[in-house]
Amino acid sequence: MPYLREQLEPKQRLKLCLIVLLLLQISHKIMLLLKS
Question: Where does the source fall among the domains of life (predicted)?
């Protein structure tokens, strides 16, 4: 969605990226916990 991305300021975009990365890491850890 290019339109949404245009609306975000660089700082907000960075924050969003960091949040997504954090969520990915957390979900990965949960998956590992569930597997073991």
Answer: Eukaryota
